[in-house]
Amino acid sequence: MKKVNYLLILLVTISMFSVAARKAIVANDLLGTWKYTVTNVPPEYETGVMTFEQKDDKTIGYLGSTEKMEMKELTIDQSKVTFKLDFQGGLLTFTLTQDGEKLSGTIVSQDGEFPISAVKEAKK
């Protein structure tokens, strides 16, 4: 019986480290600057950049290059990236899926839902 318990504990521990390692790999792939395009919005909001950084063992993000807006409630779960952004008195909710060097998804606001896509910039 003790062997079964030890084996079970070992398997649970290994699976927990495996999940944490996969999340770390995905988060590391996300780090960097991404150029995005949003469709069906006014021209001044169509393009921009989003940046993901590692700070104190946590992934953080910003939208914009000169006036950076911090991403709120940023979560990364395998290839799914979600966050919220306070914008002009409203709340924007981003839901993105990462596929290698590309992100795609939607932004939901009080004005509706808008498609967004992004491409990761090459490291300089």
Note down, in words, how this protein is organized.
The chain has about 120 residues and is an alpha+beta fold. Strands 4-3-2-1-9-8-7-6-5 form a nine-stranded antiparallel beta sheet, covered by helices on one side. It has one helix and nine strands, in the order αβββββββββ.
Relevant terms:
124 residues, alpha+beta, nine-stranded antiparallel β-sheet, 9 strands, 52% strand, globular
Layout: helices, strands, pairs:
Elements: H1 2-30, E1 32-38, E2 47-55, E3 58-63, E4 69-70, E5 72-77, E6 80-87, E7 90-99, E8 102-109, E9 112-120
Antiparallel strand pairs: 1-2, 1-9, 2-3, 3-4, 5-6, 6-7, 7-8, 8-9
Strand content: over 45%
- The termini sit apart by 57 Å
Radius of gyration: 18 Å
Question: Which spans have pLDDT < 50 for at least 5 consecutive residues?
Answer: 4-8, 10-26
Q: Would you report the number of β strands?
A: 9
Q: Please summarize the sheet with the most strands.
A: 9 strands, antiparallel
Compute the number of helices. 1
The percent of residues in helical segments reads: 10-25%
Give the H and E element order.
HEEEEEEEEE
In spatial order, strands of the major sheet run 4-3-2-1-9-8-7-6-5
Average pLDDT: 82
Which structural class do the helices and strands define? Answer: alpha+beta
Query: Rough shape?
Result: globular
